[in-house]
Design brief:
There is one protein chain. This protein is of the alpha/beta class. It has 2 domains: about 170 residues, Rossmann fold (3-Layer(aba) Sandwich), CATH 3.40.50.300; about 100 residues, Magnesium chelatase subunit I, C-Terminal domain (Helicase, Ruva Protein, domain 3, Orthogonal Bundle). The strands form 4 sheets. It has a 5-stranded parallel β-sheet. The protein has a two-stranded antiparallel ribbon with strand order 3-4. A hairpin with a 2-residue loop joins strand 6 and strand 7. The relative contact order is 0.15.
Length: about 325
């Protein structure tokens, strides 16, 4: 920040003030979601980052960690349409995007839209459905449109897909191909709550009438905030820091990380660089700051990159995970 001219400093100060005002709804959302979700601050923050960055999220965690409840609560707090799709081995693409139905009265085909036509789509246990269905959803995520018959329909904004997958059961599952997983902006791994939090969860579930969640934010506010997130100031030094982290996964030997070379089969794609920059800006926005600091990049780095690094058989044999690789890179790459 020491190289910024006086004019830029004034601009950043003004931007900072504006973002502090415009990000006030983030606290409202967090309080509202907190009525049904106890703890899980990390998961709620990742949901907000995805929402503000216009990126989809893959949540991985054992059953019962409130993954489904979290997105339901988020949708309820935003005056938005929500749909849940339970992925099963017999699901068809038409069950997801919709199909053409013949109308005998009018002697013509009409379009019956599927559950993907919503603002918040929960793809529950995405790895239980075959590749055809996964592809149909991932196409909708990427193109933000769906083709049924000869007609193409644009999906409403905001459009956020939250997919969950269960890491403990591998029988009867169809793992997502690496190229398709890359479409998810973040892959968040959800852990168990703390003991005190779980005690509060028990108490909350013993209540006869749970607290209702009321909409506190309009869709328009989210779309406006997305534009503001793009305006968050990112210094050139931070851009170089992001590039160094990503390039260290492709050519570790250039960063004195030669020991990682035999462990990585392929490095992160350019999507990692783009998403790391946008997610860092969204994280700064949530923290009500008008500029990105290295800690913002480090905070979202694991979620953006853990599904974008391929490991070799050697790494798997040595029980090395992508998290270990990212930690090693963050420890070595110079912080601006």
């Amino acid at each position: 920040m020491d190289l910024i001219t006086t004019n830029q400093t004034v601009d950043i100060a003004a931007l900072n003030d504006r973002i502090q005002r415009e990000s006030a709804f983030v606290d409202l959302l967090s309080i509202e979601i907190g009525k049904s979700i106890i703890g899980q601050k990390y998961m709620v923050e990742r949901l907000l980052i995805g929402l503000l960055s216009n990126g989809h999220i893959l949540l991985e965690g054992v059953p019962g960690l409130a993954k489904t409840l979290a997105i339901k609560s988020l949708a309820a707090a935003i005056h938005a349409r929500y749909s849940r799709i339970q992925f099963t081995p017999d699901l068809l693409p038409a069950d997801l995007i919709g199909t053409m139905i013949y109308n005998q009265k009018e002697n013509e085909f009409s379009v019956k839209k599927g559950p993907v036509f919503a603002n918040f789509v929960l793809a529950d246990e995405i790895n239980r459905a075959p590749a055809k269905v996964q592809s149909a959803l991932l196409e909708a995520m990427q193109e933000r449109q769906v083709t049924i018959g000869e007609k193409t329909f644009a999906l409403d904004e905001p459009f956020l897909v939250l997919a969950t997958q269960n890491p403990i059961e591998q029988e009867g599952t169809y793992p997502l191909p690496e190229a398709q997983v890359d479409r998810f902006m973040l892959k968040a791994v959800i852990g168990y709550p703390k003991k005190e939090e779980e005690q509060l969860i028990i108490r909350q579930n013993m209540q006869l009438a749970p607290k209702p969640i009321t909409p506190v934010v309009q869709k328009e506010d989210i779309l406006k905030a997305r534009n503001t997130v793009r305006e968050v100031y990112m210094d050139e030094k931070i851009e170089h820091y992001i590039l160094d982290i990503v390039f260290a996964t492709r050519k570790p030997e250039d960063y004195k990380l030669a020991k990682l070379k035999p462990l990585i089969s392929y490095g992160s794609s350019p999507r990692a660089s783009i998403n790391l920059a946008i997610a860092s800006k969204a994280y700064a926005f949530i923290k009500r700051r008008g500029y990105v600091i290295p800690e913002d990049v480090r905070a979202v780095c694991y979620d953006v990159m853990r599904h974008r690094i391929g490991l070799t058989y050697e790494a798997e044999a040595e029980n090395v995970t992508t998290e270990n690789v990212i930690s090693e890179i963050l420890n070595v790459v110079e912080v601006p």
